[in-house]
Amino acid sequence: xxxxxxxxxxxxxxxxxxxxxxxxxxxxxxxxxxxxxxxxxxxxxxxxxxxxxxxxxxxxxxxxxxxxxxxxxxxxxxxxxxxxxxxxxxxxxxxxxxxxxxxxxxxxxxxxxxxxxxxxxxxxxxxxxxxxxxxxxxxxxxxxxxxxxxxxxxxxxxxxxxxxxxxxxxxxxxxxxxxxxxxxxxxxxxxxxxxxxxxxxxxxxxxxxxxxx
Length: 213
Prior knowledge:
Layout (H helix, E strand, L loop, with lengths): L2 H11 L1 H11 L8 H10 L8 H26 L1 H16 L3 H13 L1 H7 L6 H12 L3 H29 L5 H33 L7
Helix pairs in contact: 1-2, 1-3, 2-4, 3-9, 3-10, 4-8, 4-9, 5-8, 6-7, 6-8, 7-9
C-alpha cells in the first residue's frame, strides 16, 4: 500500500497545474502531510512528468499564494476578527492550544525578521505563521520575502530527499519513507522549540518591557 504514491499519480494527470494545486491545498488542509506529499513528488521527479526543479517551483508558487492569501485576509479583516480566526485555525485545523498560539505570537514579535523564514520550516507553526504575521502587522515586503525563502527551503528539502532516495533505492515506497521522515521531524522539532523558548526567555530578561508589548 502506498497512498502517497497513488496521490502523486493523480497529481501527475494534471502536470504542473496539479503541483501548483497541491502546494495551495496544503495551506488549507492540515490533514494533508505536506512533507510526505513533497517526498512522493520528489520520488516521481524522473523527468517523464516533471523535473525536480519544476516540482519545487510549482509547489512553492502554490504554497506561497495560499500563505499570502491568508496574510492579506488577516490584514483586511482587522485585529479583532483576526485573533478569533487565528485561535480557530490553530485549535481546529492544526491542534494548537491558545497558550501555544500566544507563545508563537510573542516569539514572532520578538524576532520578527529571522522567524519569518524560520517559521516556514517548523511543522504546524508554518501553517498559522501567515495569519500571525498579519495580526502582528509585519511589513508586507518582509513577510513576502521571508515566506518565499522559507517555502523554497521546505519544499526543496523534501522534494530533493524523495528524488535522492529513489536514486539510491529504486522502487522505494513513498508512504514508508514519509513515515520515517515524520519521526525525524518530530525528533528535530522538540529541541528546536526548546531553543526558541530559551531564546525568548533570555530576550525577556534582557528587555523586560518586551513581554508587555
